[in-house]
Structures are given as structure tokens and as C-alpha cells.
């Protein structure tokens, strides 16, 4: 009887993780971030996507899973995509993406839709030259199932571009923190952010000198065009939370019939004191792929 009880409890936990109501409110954070977006942010997003794609996206059909602010859907259009489909489970993210694209890409071939990644694989006719999902699939409540579903949408010789949280020694601690933060009230979240930023300021000052923190924040916009303080909120509240090592990613992608083209990872197991960060990957269909022998660092 005890084994059956644990089984039911585990199933209940899994269902809860997949329930949108248990997830962190990413949409409100991205809507707030949109007010800060400038052309410089857009250009940095373009450079980031171009680096991963290995060039422009001219003539390619692109699916952006977990579009968030819409910045990288816009970047795909700037890189010449013939069509961009941007989807997100969060209605506010979809509205934010639509607002950004209407302002900066009116009349161009894009569409938005509110849907879960798990519902995307139901149309066997759907395929894309590029499936892009940066820092999203580890928040779905079932990362491996999300990866499998997204991979089915990659056309032959197409690219699957994604980023996932790196497995660290302290992932267990961040799971506890994120579950708490996602359910906490605004005042408690503000205190948590202040504590995190304060500790990071001390650590960077000790490692890089008095201006270490200031320089870090000033340069933050050069990383995919994002904003430091919005990313702190995103990191602390990113529930559900899963992580994966490059070796685990490689094995799973191989099982799905995908071959690595390039990867941007950090070597070794990280402590993860201030977060895990994301490793970035690009995979393609195996038939016509030339595989890299090891991830780029």
C-alpha cells in the first residue's frame, strides 16, 4: 500500500508541474521588459541568433517556442526569415510579442499563438527550417518530453536551436528556492532579489575589484540584448526548473536522431552558487549533417 501511495503522490507532483497555474509568471516580467527595449537590444538579439544559426535565416521558416518578449522572433525576421511563428503558453508573453512585432515588423510574415509546447506535435504536417527555444524547455515541467516534441518539428536538414540550464552542484537548492519564489508575494520577492543582488555585488567586488558589479551590469545588455534586473527576477522565479549536462543532452539528441552542429558550453561541473546559466546547442537531422566532434567552449 505504501508503494502505491508514493506512486500516486509522484503522479500528482508531475501533473502539478505541468499545470500552468503552478508556473512562475514570466509574462508579467517580459511585459515590463518591453518598455526598455531599444534598437540596441534588438541588434544584440540579432547578433546572438546569427551566432547560433551560423549565418542569416534567409528564406527559412522559423518557430520560436516560448517567445517571451518577442525579441528573438523579431531578430529572426531581421535575419531574413520568410516566416516566423511565435508561440508561448503565457497569454501575456504572446501579447507582448505581438506588440513588439506590430511596432517593428508590421506587414512582415509573422504570427503569434498561445499554446503549450506539448500541443505543438499534434500536427504531423508542421515542420520548420529552424526551431528556436532559448531558456524555455527546462521550465515546462517535463523537459525531456518538451525536447522530444520540439525535435519532431524540425524539417530535414533543419536546425534545432535551444538553450538549457546547465546541471550544477546546487541545482537541488535552486529548485527549492524557485518553487518558493514563484508562490511568494511581491514584497517577499523584492526582498529575495535585493539579497541576491547584494550578495552578487559583494562576490564580484571581491573577484574583480570595486567596479566589478557595475561593469558586469553595464555589459549585461550585450548578452542577447537582455536586462540584468529583469533576468534576476526571471532566474529566481523560474519554476518549474530542470537542468541537464552537455553529455546528457548529446545522448538524448542522438536518441532522437539529431546530430550536433555546434554548442557553446562550459566544461566541468559548476557549483552554481549564483545560478546555473544556460548552455547553448544547435542540432540538425542526421541524414545530411556533419557532426562536430566536441562542443565549442
Description:
By secondary structure, this protein is of the alpha/beta class. The protein folds into two domains: 22-167 and 242-288, 3-Layer(aba) Sandwich (Rossmann fold), CATH 3.40.50; 171-237, no CATH class. It is built from eleven helices and seven strands. The protein has helices at residues 2-18, 26-34, 39-53, 71-78, 91-104, 143-151, 171-183, 186-208, 212-218, 228-237, 246-255; strands at 61-65, 83-88, 110-114, 128-134, 154-165, 258-264, 278-285. A seven-stranded mixed beta sheet has the order 3-2-1-4-5-7-6, with helices on both faces. Strand 2, helix 5 (91-104) and strand 3 (110-114) form a beta-alpha-beta unit. The radius of gyration is 19 Å and the shape is globular. Mean pLDDT is 89; it is low at 1-12.
Biggest sheet features: 7 strands, mixed
Instruction: Give the uncertain stretches in residue-range form.
Output: 1-12
Count of the separate structural domains = 2
How far apart, in Å, are the first and last alpha carbons?
Answer: 50 Å
Mean pLDDT: 89
What integer value in Å does the Rg equal? 19 Å
Structural class: alpha/beta
Helix content: 40-55%
Care to count the β-strands? 7
Please tell me the CATH architecture of the largest domain by its name.
Answer: 3-Layer(aba) Sandwich
Element order: H for helix, E for strand: HHHEHEHEEHEHHHHHEE
CATH topology (level 3) name of the largest domain: Rossmann fold
- Overall body shape: globular
The H-level CATH homologous superfamily of the largest domain, spelled out, is: Vaccinia Virus protein VP39
Largest sheet strand order:
3-2-1-4-5-7-6
Strand content: 15-25%
Amino acid at each position: 500500500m505504501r508503494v502505491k501511495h508514493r506512486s500516486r503522490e509522484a503522479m500528482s507532483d508531475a501533473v502539478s508541474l505541468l499545470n500552468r497555474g503552478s508556473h512562475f509568471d514570466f509574462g508579467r516580467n517580459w511585459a515590463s521588459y518591453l518598455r526598455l527595449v531599444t534598437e540596441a537590444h534588438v541588434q544584440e538579439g540579432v547578433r546572438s541568433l546569427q551566432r547560433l544559426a551560423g549565418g542569416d535565416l534567409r528564406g527559412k521558416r522559423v518557430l520560436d517556442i516560448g517567445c517571451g518578449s518577442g525579441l528573438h522572433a523579431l531578430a529572426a525576421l531581421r535575419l531574413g526569415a520568410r516566416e516566423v511563428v511565435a508561440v508561448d503558453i503565457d497569454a501575456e508573453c504572446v501579447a507582448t510579442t505581438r506588440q513588439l512585432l506590430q511596432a517593428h515588423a508590421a506587414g512582415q510574415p509573422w504570427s503569434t499563438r498561445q499554446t503549450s509546447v506539448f500541443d505543438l506535435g499534434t500536427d504531423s504536417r508542421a515542420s520548420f527550417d529552424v526551431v528556436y527555444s532559448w531558456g524555455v524547455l527546462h521550465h515546462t515541467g517535463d523537459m525531456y518530453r518538451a525536447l522530444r516534441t520540439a525535435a519532431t518539428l524540425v524539417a530535414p536538414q533543419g536546425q534545432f536551436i535551444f538553450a538549457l540550464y546547465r546541471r550544477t552542484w546546487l541545482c537541488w537548492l535552486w529548485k527549492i528556492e524557485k518553487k518558493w519564489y514563484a508562490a511568494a508575494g511581491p514584497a517577499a520577492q523584492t526582498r529575495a532579489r535585493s539579497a541576491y543582488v547584494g550578495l552578487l555585488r559583494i562576490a564580484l567586488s571581491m573577484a574583480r575589484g570595486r567596479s566589478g558589479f557595475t561593469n558586469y551590469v553595464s555589459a549585461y545588455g550585450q548578452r542577447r540584448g537582455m536586462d540584468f534586473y529583469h533576468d534576476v527576477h526571471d532566474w529566481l522565479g523560474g519554476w518549474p526548473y530542470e537542468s541537464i549536462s552537455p553529455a546528457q543532452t548529446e545522448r538524448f539528441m542522438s536518441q532522437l536522431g539529431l546530430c550536433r552542429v555546434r554548442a557553446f558550453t562550459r566544461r566541468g561541473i559548476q557549483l552554481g552558487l549564483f545560478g546555473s546559466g544556460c548552455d547553448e546547442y544547435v542540432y540538425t537531422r542526421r541524414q545530411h549533417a556533419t557532426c562536430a566532434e566536441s562542443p565549442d567552449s
